[in-house]
Each structure stands twice: as structure tokens, then as C-alpha cells.
Amino acid sequence: MSAELIFGYVGALLIGLVLGLVGGGGSILTVPLLVYLLGYNPITATAYSLFVVGASSLVGTVQKHQKRLVDFKTGLLFSFPSFLAVYLSRRFLLPALPDYFFKSDSFSVSKGMLIMVFFAIIMFWAALSMIKRKVDEESDNSTAAKPQAYYVTFLQGLVIGSITGIIGAGGGFLYVPALVLWANLPMKKAVGTSLVIISINSLIGFTGDLQTIPIEWPFLLKFTGLTIVGVLFGGYFSKKVSNRLLKKGFGWLILIMSLFIISKELFRF
Hints:
It is a single chain. This protein is mainly alpha-helical. The chain has one domain. 74% of the residues lie in helices and 3% in strands. A two-stranded antiparallel sheet has the order 1-2. Strand 1 and strand 2 form a beta hairpin.
């Protein structure tokens, strides 16, 4: 077993630990780890990430459900447009994109490069929201706005699902605000309910990749298993650590990583 693979498995455990501690966001580390440490191309890495995220979110859903922090009806209602968009983007949109959008002797813009830059932009946005967030997730935020029409939610689900499908991340940082604003859910219940959406979206989106790319099942199952072990440990220790400080510290880590990915892809050092 190579050193890179060992570090990759350790990284899977740490990703799960972050997921369990923070309640989300750890999945955004999966794609950079698979691409830059283990050498997978971005298309394969985002596909693997969907499976890892989906399986880990299922475990997280069970944990949250035991604490009565999951609204399954709302989660399933929001899931339909989202998983539709995730599946279609993985099955048809990504395979249809050209391998190179621009190519010359000195510089080229590949599909993989665009995916990673777009991924880094989403990471940057997520990092800022984690760093600046002032909402107390321990409180019962029940003063949200009047529920909006379902067709608006349907369109939101399509947009968020498309982003999720392209970058191969869970999208919890997008789903949680939508659930608070549309479904009038308290913040903690919105976090738990988002795991239902993420698990459904990610696993259904992954089925779109099964028809277009080969899957290394032995590696993927080991990687996912270690991530789930990390989730369980993180969930146990989450009660002992300040959630607000964890999110802010993780936000700074994601911010630095997003800048690293942009510089790596654009300057190729």
C-alpha cells in the first residue's frame, strides 16, 4: 500500500470526523483529497464524493432522527427537484461537455479544470458563510418568513441540485438556509432535514455516473467505511466541543483550500 493511499484513508477518517463534529461541510474536502492526493480526475472524484457523501449522510440522518431533529416530509418534498437535477447533470450534462474548451501551446482550459475552479468558488462562498454566520444554532429559530409557493422551491431545488451534481459535494450549506426560509424550520431541525435531501440526492446522482465511468468498488467502499467511522466518532465528541468555534475554524480551512485550488488550477505550479 502506497503512502498516498494510506494518507488518503486517514483523510477519509478525518472527513467523517468533521462531518460528525460540524454536522456538515466535511464532504467538501473529499474532492480535493481524491484529486490532489490520490490522483483521480475531477469527474471520477466528484462521482466518488457523491457516494461517500450519500452514505455518510444516511448515517447522519439516523443520528439526527434519534434526537428528533429530522422532518422527513419536508425533506422528501424538497428532494424531488433536487435529485432530478443531480441525476440529469451527472448522467447527461457532464458527459456532454467537451474535454477542452480552449487549447493552445501555452495554455488550455479543460473540463476538469473548469470543474475544480467552479468547485473552489463554491468552497469560497461556503467558507465565508461559515466564518460570518451569527445565527445561534442552539436556538429555536421559529420566526422565519412566510412559506413560499412550491414552484419557487421547485426551481430552487433544481438550481441547488445542479450545483451539487457538478461539484460532487453535499450542498448542505445551500439546503439549510432554503429549509429555514421556505419550510420555516428551526436551524437545528433544518440541519438534520438537509441530511435526508443530501443522502437521496447524492446516491441517486451517483447512479448517473455508474453508466458513464468505471468504479473502483474495493477502494470506494473502504474509503466510505472509514468516513462513516469518522462520522460516528465525530457525533460522539460533538457534544463536548463548541459548534460555533468548530464551524468558524473549519470555514477558515475551507477558505484557504479554495484559494489553493484556484491557484493550483490557474497557475499549474
